[in-house]
Amino acid sequence: MADVTEPIRVLVVDDDALVRGALVMMLDGADGIRVVGEAGDGEEVPGLVDTHAPHVVLMDLRMPRTGGITATRRLRERPQAPDVVVLTTFDSDENVLRALRAGASGFLLKDTPPPRIVEAVRRVAFGDPILSPTVTRRLMEQASAQAGNRERARAALRCLSEREHEVAVAVARGRSNAEIAAAAHMSVATVKAHVSHVLTKLDLDNRTQIALLVHDADG
């Protein structure tokens, strides 16, 4: 999560120089955001993260040497890893689903309007994952169709308390911490604590993975 006293540092990773340049120009022109580096392949990401310590990495899926899924998985295995937002043309549900399971905090379509990309970077930097309702529905349907995933997910969720399960379901429905708090008559701090407990008990990295697990269990 970004420190609110400093600009949000962003690393842009895309093998298309034109796309990369457009993203850099757009983000550098936004208030409170600074692009600290850019890369044309996932292979370059670890070194740039070490050098620039970005809060958010915008990650393309298809790159020549190391693709976005592999790069995301490697990055999220590191301590204090930045959040990853996948950039995709969405030509493959399975690839995006794999990226989310690898630890990405969300995804954006490459034709997303610039203001929404800027908003997405800000939201992810402050702990609110990006889940496009239309695209997420397709991913969840695919995940839920896998019976093995369903049974494993249900078994995992049984370790949660009743309140933790309630919060997990609300997260899966795309509710923010404030919305969950208002509906359940809890403080936002209490909701954050429950989310943290859910992540720890289920050995997950972020809210997106909570959502995937809940939808797997409901399949």
UniProtKB/TrEMBL annotation:
It comes from the Bacteria. Residues 153-218 form the HTH luxR-type domain. The keyword Heme does not apply. The modification 4-aspartylphosphate is found at D60. One of its GO terms (biological process) is regulation of DNA-templated transcription. Residues 9-125 form the Response regulatory domain. One of its GO terms (molecular function) is DNA binding. Gene3D superfamilies: 3.40.50.2300. SUPFAM superfamilies: C-terminal effector domain of the bipartite response regulators, CheY-like. PROSITE patterns: HTH_LUXR_2, RESPONSE_REGULATORY. Keywords: DNA-binding, Phosphoprotein, Transcription, Transcription regulation. This is LuxR family two component transcriptional regulator. It comes from Actinomycetospora cinnamomea. The lineage of its organism: Bacteria, Bacillati, Actinomycetota, Actinomycetes, Pseudonocardiales.
